[in-house]
Predict the structure.
Amino acid sequence: MKKFVALIAVLVLSLSCVALAEGNADLTSAKAYIYQLYKNPTRTDIKSTPADFDVLGVVPVDGVNYTVEWTTDTEAVKVIAKEDGTVTIDVDEKNPEEVNYTLTATMKNEAGESVSLSFKHKVPAALIL
């Protein structure tokens, strides 16, 4: 009985997601693409980023380029847009303390609709000798 109820719940959630995605299917595709690129493959909650790294600043979907706006929740990590369409996430490699931060990607369409997703990261404490 519990399995049946769980299956019904999954079905209802799936149908709800499909109904919500119909209005902004391209944004949903862009979000899924960014998620697949930057999800943590080790399945832990927090990804360690001891050095600067680049992320996409634009995602093309069905001939439309969606700009990805990256933000962080700390001053220790900077977001730097580059002319080639990529974005550098500039971490403070010399910080003596570990810094946990959330990196958020937001994409918008012409109608003003937006989707966001977040990734948890940490900058390990620097070894200062």
The CA atoms of residues 104 and 118 lie 4 Å apart. The first strand starts at residue 47 and ends at 48. The two ends are 61 Å apart (CA to CA). The beta strands are 47-48, 53-56, 58-61, 64-72, 77-81, 86-91, 99-108, 114-123.
